[in-house]
Amino acid sequence: MRRVVLLCLLACLAVVVACGPKQQKRHVGDIRMKKNDNEADAIAFLERYNTESSRLLNKGIILDWAYNTNITDANAEASTAASLELQAFSLASFNEALEFDSTNFSEDTQRQLKSVGAKQLPEAEQQTLSEVLTLLRGIFTNILCIEMHVQIILRQILSNMSRIYGSGQVCWEDGQCSVLEGTEDSLSTLFATSTDEPKLRYAWEQWRTNVGRPMKPYYEQYVELKNQLAVIRNYTDYGHEMRSRYEIDDFELSMEEIYNTTLPYYLELHAYVRRKLYDTYGPEVVDLEGPIPAHLLGDMWGRFWNNIYNLTEPYPGLQSVDPTPQMVAQGYTPERMFRQGDAFYQSMGLKAVPDTFYELSMIEKPQDGREVVCHPTAWDFFDGQDYRIKMCTVVSFDDFLVIHHEMGHIQYFMQYSDLPTVYRDGANDGFHEAIGELMSMAVSTPKHLETIGLIDEVVENPDLDINFLLKTSFGSLSTLPFHYVMDLWRWRAFRGEYPDNQWNDEFWKLKESLVGVKAPVERTPEDLDPPALFHISGDYDMMRYFTRTILQFQFFESLCEASGHQGPIYKCDFSGSTAAGDRLAALLRMGRSKPWPDALEELTGQREMDVNPLLNYFAPLYNWLQTENKRLNNKIGWKPSNSFA
Ligand SMILES: *[C@@H]1O[C@H](CO)[C@@H](O)[C@H](O)[C@H]1NC(C)=O
Ligand SMILES: *[C@@H]1O[C@H](CO)[C@@H](O)[C@H](O)[C@H]1NC(C)=O
Ligand SMILES: *[C@@H]1O[C@H](CO)[C@@H](O)[C@H](O)[C@H]1NC(C)=O
Ligand SMILES: *[C@@H]1O[C@H](CO)[C@@H](O)[C@H](O)[C@H]1NC(C)=O
Ligand SMILES: *[C@@H]1O[C@H](CO)[C@@H](O)[C@H](O)[C@H]1NC(C)=O
Ligand SMILES: *[C@@H]1O[C@H](CO)[C@@H](O)[C@H](O)[C@H]1NC(C)=O
Ligand SMILES: [Zn+2]
């Protein structure tokens, strides 16, 4: 380890020394350089770039896949080397793109130039330094050296955080330790199934002590370095860069507005859930007028509330909203679940996955002793024919829905595969996430379950509708404040708004005031809780989940309309409707070639994100919650907490 650090310092120093003098001359936006304003040159450059980047992406993704489905040192090294090669190419291309003055170029050329260099492989394991040095000598002689210097350190910091996260565990009094997921005694299983409050509280605290705390110095450096890179790329800070991907003028204000508009619905849901948790855990743990303690919501972070549906079911004893037992009884297998997912898309006239999909995907946890990354993901190999999903499927309805979600990504990949590489992406990140969720909404309807033989008959019962809507809200409506606050906190951190050592305090202030959730145990200045969530230490934005939740209901409404659906929107199942499929395909085919409002307009006729479809969908639940909360005299909202459970 120590040798690696020393080498790194030398390497970084070497870069800075070797190209130090050029730095000032080559700053972005430097007007002393005469730029190329010949559009034909730019188009030729873009053609070269698109071809070469899809070649490198394909090569890198093949190796990355090999690593993810077979974790060995050799596979990690191979994948890292490819990732570095791509990163080097991206960086060089990004700088080459800056040499054009695109003022008078067509809109499309301008848009493509702006997207050059954005594609990177996911963070692989730490690279060996000799590889870095070789690459540096070969490729980086004439581009921004400072940027590469920052990139190298940043990669190590991200890799260090990922190692801490991946090896994080909680050890119990008897000496046994639990990892986060993938085992029977995992922490995820604990949070999903246990109501042993002291145990949950202990796990909650220990996870943050063992994961968040050691990450703190890295996370602070990460923020600083990300900001430096953002400034080189002409953003005020990294939060600005993250927001700019959404192409909305005042993104922060728009998101705040969405939060505000959906808040009354969230408040009713919150009050109802808090009462149910109070019934389960008692007044010692849950204050009926305070924020909800964060460890009682069914996962390590209080992100998705699906797992507490049991504790909160409005009308127990009715037809189950989860047909897992039927699936098991009917002998469902993972392959059958995938083929049925594929059939769902085809029934709408959308594309079938290629045969190679079934040959090459990993749809079950391998039994040959290989270590794999189980987290479900969908993969585009950028060659227009190879698409795969990696998932350790179990036969359950939840996984059936996950399959429809992942297949939504695959459908998107296939639909935009004809576009230049720079455009092979979602209109924004929320779009990519929304497609599969939208399909899952149709799949969960009783009508669809009857069609595929998972329930005997559709029972018409308003109480059952309320059960169904509450279940649906736990993966959508209830997540809005959570996702909003994660990024709001980061935007402020990147802007440098927090005094030293108050980052965590500020986080909990936001959590309490905007989410109505509090830490169950006292936090100290040594703690840093946000990176104890995968997406924060892993450098993924959360607004994709916030925006997708709004978008998925907008899309849903339009597809239901196209399919000729009558009656309450939450009963809509548009499977089998090619009219709906055509509308969706038109959006998917656009990829990222136009600003996202154009893609949205293609499907919905609107150019803005609109919360009304979501609010309409949940209106019956909202009315029911209002009545129920009044009946039980539940306080709406919360007063500040000053105690810990
Ligand atoms: C950098 O940002 C400023 C302000 O937004 C803008 O005026 C300028 O054109 C940008 N420069 C480049 C090279 O993009
Ligand atoms: C896993 O990767 C190693 C190389 O590190 C290779 O030798 C082995 O055959 C791979 N296993 C499978 C099942 O692909
Ligand atoms: C763009 O076009 C305008 C008007 O024709 C011209 O004045 C300007 O010099 C051109 N700019 C570049 C960079 O070619
Ligand atoms: C990454 O972690 C190692 C081992 O703990 C440490 O020696 C190294 O300094 C860290 N890297 C950076 C860039 O902080
Ligand atoms: C959201 O609501 C808060 C509190 O009522 C208010 O201060 C803020 O201006 C609102 N923001 C927007 C964008 O409407
Ligand atoms: C929740 O449901 C699961 C399976 O559906 C069951 O095993 C468990 O006992 C239930 N828990 C509670 C608290 O009702
Ligand atoms: Zn997804």
From TrEMBL:
InterPro entries: Peptidase_M2
Keyword Transmembrane annotated: no
Pfam families: Peptidase_M2
GO BP, sorted A to Z: proteolysis
GO molecular function: carboxypeptidase activity; metal ion binding; metallopeptidase activity; peptidyl-dipeptidase activity
Cofactor note: Binds 2 Zn(2+) ions per subunit.
List of catalytic residues: 406 (proton acceptor 1), 406 (proton acceptor 2), 535 (proton donor 2), 535 (proton donor 1)
Keywords, in A-Z order: Carboxypeptidase, Disulfide bond, Glycoprotein, Hydrolase, Metal-binding, Metalloprotease, Protease, Signal, Zinc
Cofactors (names): Zn(2+)
Annotated signal sequence range: 1-18
Binding site for chloride: 246, 544
PROSITE patterns reported in the protein's UniProt record: PEPTIDASE_M2 (PS52011), PROKAR_LIPOPROTEIN (PS51257)
TM annotation in the entry: none
Superkingdom as given in the UniProt entry: Eukaryota
CDD domains the record matches: M2_ACE
One Gene Ontology cellular component: plasma membrane
Cysteine-cysteine disulfides: 374-392, 560-572
Gene3D superfamilies according to UniProt: 1.10.1370.30
Entry-listed glycosylation sites: 70, 160
UniProt-annotated binding residues for Zn(2+) 1: 405, 409, 433
EC class: hydrolase
EC number from the UniProt entry: 3.4.-.-
Residue numbers binding Zn(2+) 2: 405, 409, 433
Family: Belongs to the peptidase M2 family.
Protein name according to UniProt: Angiotensin-converting enzyme
